[in-house]
Amino acid sequence: MGQNKPKGFVMVIGAGIAGIQTALSLADAGYGVHLAERSASMGGMIPDLHRIYPLCACCKLDPRIAACEQNPNINILLDTCVDNISGAAGNFSIDLTTGGEKKKIQAGAVIFAAGIETFQPSNLDYYAYGSTPNIVTSVEFEQSQKPLGPNYGMLKRPSDGKTPEKIAWLQCVGSRDINRGDASYCSTVCCMHALKEAVNAKAVNEDIEATIFFIDMRTHGKGYEDYLNAALEKGVKLVRSKVHTINPLPETGDVEMTYADEQGQMQKAVFDMAVLSVGLRPSAQAIELARKVGLRVRADNYLETEPFQPVSTSTEGIFVCGGVCGPHDITHSLIQANAAVAQVAGFLEPESFVPASETAAVPAETQGTAGILLAYQLCAGMSPEIGRLVESAAADLSAVTDVCRLDGDILGGLREKLAQVAADRVVFASCTAPMHKESVEAALRLSGRNPFMYETVDLKLLGSDPTLAPITERLRIGVMRAEFLTPPVIHEIPVVKHALVVGGGVAGMENALALSREGCPVTLVEKEKELGGHGRHVRATWQGLDAQAYLQALIRSVEQDDNITVLTETGVKQNRGYAGNFITTVKNAGGTQEIRHGVTILACGGEDRKVDEYLYGQNDRVYLWSELEDKLVSDPAVVENAGSAVFIQCVGSREKDCPHCSNLCCSFTVRTAVDLKTKNPDMNVFVIYREMRTFGLRENLYLEARKKGVVFIRYDVENKPRVAPSADGKGLTVTVFDPILDRMVSLDADFLSLQTAIRPTRNAALADIFHVNLDGNGFFAPSPEKLKPVDTTAGGVFMAGLAAYPKDTVDTITEARAAAGRALEIIRQDTVRIGGQIAEVTPEKCAVCCTCVRTCPFYVPFIDHERGAAYIDPALCQGCGMCVAECPGKAIVMPSCSDGMLTQVPAALLEGV
Amino acid sequence: MDEFTPRIVAFCCSNCAAAASKIADGLQHVLPENVKTIQVPCTGRIEVLHLLKPFEEGADGVYVAGCQEDSCRYTSGISKATRRVAHVQKILEEIAIEPERIAVFNVSAGTGHTFSEIAREMTRKVKKIGPLQA
Fold first, then answer.
1. How confident is the model at residue A356 (pLDDT cuts 50, 70, 90)?
2. Nearest residue of chain A to residue B34 (CA atoms)
3. How do residues A67-106 score in pLDDT, each as one tens digit?
4. What whole-number distance in Å separates Cα of residue B68 and Cα of residue A696?
5. What does the alpha-carbon distance between residue A361 and residue A249 come to, in Å, rounded to a whole number?
C-alpha cells in the first residue's frame, strides 16, 4: 500500500514457533518467504514440550507446520545453514548451504528467528548431572512426561523404573550464576516450566511430593501468578534456598540435596530423583552468523536490539524475534514475531513466488443435489493401496457421481476437476483432511459453487495393511453427511480500510504509526486532553533509556501524520459490526460521530492502584511509584538529595483482592535505585520485596544495584513492614522483619515509594462495548484459539499495552506493533466472507427464552425486538453449535451439523455391523 | 461361537480429537473397526437425543471424545457434553440399561496414544457388560 518502497522476498532464519509464525504471516501478506532451518524438522523446542502453559496447545503447532508446507509462498529449506549475508536493506544476498550444496538467495529483508538452546549442566560437578540417571534436566523430565514418550506418560525413575514418590526441582541451573554457569541473567521461563512439570506430575499421581528449590519465584506473565497459586493449592512445595550440592546415594538410587535455607542454615533432604531447571542460551550458530555479518551482539551473546526498536538489529532491514534476542517465553516470542512482520511491511513491498490470486467469485445458488465429487489425496507416507481401495469403495456408493485423485496441488487440481463435472458438493478424503479445509473451500468458491458444500474424510488410523471395509465405511459417512448439507447463505462484504485505536498512550500511538506506515488510515481516540497516557509518568525504561524524550518524539510523529486523526477528550459510546466492517459511535464536546472501520485496537491503558496502607495520602513523603517518577522528572533535586530512601514492592498486589503480578515494578525499583545511587552514592537505599522479579536480562540491573550497595530485605505478606512518622517528625521510620538477620530492623526514610499493582482503567466498560471477554484479573482475555496473544476473544479486535497486561515501555512497543501486524492481515483483504458453517435462528419457532443468549461462549446471540426473536450475527458466530443443542424450542439450526445428520448417520453406520 | 464384538458410536470433537488421531497414526495405531466415529464441530453440539439414538439403532456403547476441560476453544463445550453424558447415564439407569455403556473422554493433541486407546478401552468395557438386549 505504501509508496517508494523496495520490493522483495523475505528470508526467515529458524523454523521454531517464532519463525513459523513470521513465515505464515508474511506469506499471507503476499511475500515470498525462504524459511531456513538448520535441523531436519520444523517446530524448534515445541515438539519437546508436553503441555504449553497453561494449556494443551501442541495441536496448534502441527497445523501451522502443515500450513507452511502447503503455502506456495513459503520455501522451506531444512538441513540448511545460512553462511553469510551481504548487501543492504531491500537487496540482501544470502549464502546458504542446503543439503550439502552451496546456494545464493536474494531477499529484501531478513528475520533472525533462530531461537534458543538449553544449558548443558555437565560441567557443574556439584550437581552430579551424568553421575546417576536419577538427576535429569527439565527438558529430559518433560520428555518423559509426554504421553507419547517411552513411559506413556507414567512417571518412572530412570535408574530402576520405580514410581518416584519425592521429586525435587532445582532452579537457576545455568542462570543467575556468574561463577560456573557463566550467565548472569535470568532465563525467564524456568520457574513456570518447573511449576508446570510439578503440577503435571501431581496430576498423574497426587501423592507425589513435588518440591521446588528456588531463589525467587518469577511468575510475572499474564496469568502466571494464578498458575502459581493453583500449584500451591495442589500441594506443590516451594523451598527458598540456595542448593550447595546434590549427592547421589548409590545404595538406594536416591539423591541427597544439601542446601542453605533463607537463614543460611545448612539443611539436607533426600529425594527419589532431582530435576535441574536448565537455563537458556541463544542459538550459537545464529550468533556466530550475526557476528560475521556485523550485527551488534551483547556481552551475554544475545543479539542487541536498537533503543525503542525492540525487533530491529543494528543493520537496517535485518530484524529479530524470539529467543535469539533474549530469554523469552513462547508468548513473547510470538508477539515479537508479529511485530517483526509489521516492521518488514513498513519498508518492503511484497514480492510473491506466485502470481496474485484471483478474486473470489460470488457463489451461485444451488438447488437439490447435483451430485457428489469424491476427491482424495495420498501423502508420501501412505500406502498406494489406499488409493485403489478408495476407488473401489467409491464404485459401490451410488451417490458419488465422480471420483478424482489429487496430487500435491489440492486447490488447482480440485478446481480443474470441478470445471468438468456437474457435482455441487465434494467429499474430500486425505490424511488429516480438516487441515486442507481452506484449499477445498477456495476450489469450490473459484468454481462458482457454495464453498461450504463439502465434507471431509480422514484416511488415518488405517494401519500399515489397509483393508476395504473401514475405508468404505468412512467414505459412506462422508457421503451421507454431504447429502445432508444445505447450502448456507454467503455474503462477500468489502473491508473498510480504516482502523480505530482506543487509547492514546504509548501502545495506541505506536500501533497507529505502524498501521499508518502501511497506508492504513487511523482514528485514534483518547479520553484525556493530551496524548501520552501512563507513559507521561515514566522517567526511564529499565534499560535506562530516556522515556520522556521518546514520548515527546512519538507524540510529534503522531500529530504530524496525515493518516492519523486524533480525537482527544473523546469517549467510545457504542460499537457494532464484525471484523472487516465495524461502526463505532464516539462522543466528545462537539457531539457524537460515527466511525466506520475494519479493525479495532484496544489500548486503553492502566494505572497504579491507590491504597490506604503505609501512610499513603496522610504523609507527603509517601509516594506512589508514578508520583515518584513525576517528581524525578519535574523536581529531581528533592529526591536525589535525600539521605535515605525505602521502596516497598507488591503493595496492594499479589494479594487476595488483586492477585496478579504487575510485571515491571521490580525492574522499575532496581532501575530507580541504581540511578539514585549513581547520582548520590551516599544515599541509603532499601528495597523491601516479596519476590525479586527482575526476569530475563533485567537481572543484570539487580546485580548492579546490589553491587552499588542497595539493601534488599524480603518480607512475607503475613508479616508486612510497618511505616510511622519518625520521632523527630521530619522523616519516616520503616520497621520490617529481616529473615536473614532473623530479627526486626528499623530503617529511616526521607521518602517512601510504594510499588502498587497496575490495573486496567477502563477495560470493563470497553469490554461491554466491544463484546470482548476479560480475564480473571480484569485484563482483556486472549483468543481461545491459543497462541494468538494480541487477539481478543472477538474477531478483528486486538489489544496492546497495559490494558492487556502490565509491561514495560519497550515490551509495550513490541506488543503495539504486533497488534498492528495482526490488524493489517484483515485490512489487506478486499472482502470478508460472512456466513457458512454457523447457527441460524428460525424466528417463527423462537420463544425468546434467552437460552442461546446465556449459552453462547462468545455472547453472540441477542434478542432482536423488532423480529420478536433471537438473532445470531452470521459474522460473529464461531460455529460450535452449543446454542443449537440447548435451544428448547429447536428454533436454532446448523446446516453443517444438523439433527438429521446426527441421528441418521449413526443409524446407517450401525446397519452393516 | 463368535466372540462378541460390541458396536460402538463415538462422537468426536473435530478440533482436538482430529489432531490427536493424527499423532496416533504416526505411531501406526489402528482405530478398531467396531468403533464408528462421527465428528462434530464441538462436543457442546451433541444433545441427549443424539446420544440415546444410537442405542435404539443397535449400538452397545456410545462415547464422546472431546478436549481437556481447560483447552476447549469454545470454552465450555466439553463441560456441557460431560453434563449431558451424566444425564444420559441416569436415563439409562432408569430404563435398566447399564450406565457404563456411555462415557466421556478428554483427549488432547499431545495424547495421540489415548485416542485409539480409549476406543479399545471402551470396547473392553462394553465387551464385559455384554450385548445390549433389545
1. low
2. A913
3. 787 788 999 999 999 999 999 999 999 999 998 899 999 9
4. 32
5. 73
Tell me if B41 and A906 make a contact (CB, 8 A cut-off). Answer: no
**Per-residue buried b or exposed e for A823-847, using 16+ beta carbons within 10 Å of the residue's own CB:** bbebbbbeebbbbbbbbbbeeeebe
pLDDT of A150 > 70? The answer is: no
Of A349, A88, A219, give the one whose Cα is nearest residue A653.
A219
pLDDT tens-digit readout, A631-685: 999 999 989 999 999 999 999 999 999 999 999 999 999 999 999 999 999 999 9
CATH class of the domain comprising A609-757: alpha beta
Q: State the pTM of this model.
A: 0.83
Tell me which amino acid residue A65 is: I
Among A200, A437, A461, most B C-beta atoms within 10 A, so best to mutate, is A461
Residue A333 C-alpha cell reads as 516470542
Going across the sheet that includes A644-651, the strands are A622-624, A751-756, A644-651, A684-689, A711-714
Residue-wise pLDDT tens digits, A21-32: 999 999 988 899
Chain A residue with minimum CA distance to B17: A59
- CA angle (A144 as vertex; A141, A149 as ends), nearest 5: 155
| Domain at A118-280, CATH from 3.30.1330.90, 3.30.1370.60, 3.50.50.60, 2.40.50.140 | 3.50.50.60
Are B18 and A458 inside 8 Å of each other by CB?
A: yes
Chain A residues touching B16 at Cβ < 8 A: 56, 59
- Domains A499-605+761-832 and A838-893 alike in fold: no
Cβ contact (<8 Å) for A148 and B23? yes
Q: Please report, for chain B, the start and end positions of each structural domain, with discontinuous segments joined by +.
A: 8-42+52-115
- Residue B113 has its nearest CB partner, among A55, A148, A907, at A148
* CATH number for the segment(s) A7-115+283-350: 3.50.50.60
Q: Which of B29, B59, B71 has the CB atom closest to A55's CB atom? A: B71
Indicate if the pLDDT at residue A388 is higher than 60. yes
Report how far residue B86's alpha carbon sits from residue B76's, in angstroms, rounded to the nearest whole number: 16
* Closest alpha carbon within chain B to A460: B25
Residue A359 has pLDDT above 50, yes or no: no
pLDDT at residue B25 greater than cutoff 50: no
- A:B CB pairs within 8 Å: 162
Mean pLDDT, chain A, rounded, equals 90
Of A63, A458, A906, nearest to B54 by CB-CB distance is A906
Fold category of A838-893 in CATH: Alpha-Beta Plaits (3.30.70)
Residue B46's closest chain A neighbor by CA?
Answer: A885
Say whether residue B9 is in contact with chain A using an 8 A CB cutoff: yes
User: Is there a contact between A640 and A633 (Cβ–Cβ < 8 Å)?
Assistant: no
Q: Closest to A460 (Cβ–Cβ): which among B21, B68, B109?
A: B21
Query: Would you call B36 and A907 a contact, using CB atoms and an 8 Å cutoff?
Result: no
Three cell numbers, residue A284: 550459537
Joined together, the cell numbers standing for residue A237 give 512445595
Nearest chain B residue to A468, by CA: B33
Give the best residue of B8, B11, B39, B68 to mutate against chain A (max A CB count within 10 A): B39
pLDDT of A353 > 60? The answer is: yes
Assess B25–A contact: CB distance below 8 Å, yes or no.
yes
Cβ–Cβ of B16/A905 closer than 8 Å? no
A439 neighbors A430 (Cβ within 8 angstroms): no
Would you say residue B18 has pLDDT above 80? no
Listed by start position, the domains of chain A span 7-115+283-350, 118-280, 372-489, 499-605+761-832, 609-757, 838-893
- A679-731 pLDDT, tens per residue? 999 999 999 999 999 999 999 999 999 999 999 999 999 999 999 999 888 89
Give the residue, A708 or A462, on which the prediction is more confident.
Answer: A708
With an 8 Å Cβ cutoff, are A463 and B24 in contact?
no
DSSP-assigned letters across all residues of A285-297: HHHHHHHHTT--B
Chain A residues whose beta carbon lies within 8 Å of the beta carbon of residue B51: none
pLDDT for A470-520, tens place per residue?
888 888 888 888 888 877 777 778 999 999 999 999 999 999 999 999 999
Cell of A31: 511475500
Q: Which fold has domain A499-605+761-832?
A: FAD/NAD(P)-binding domain (3.50.50)
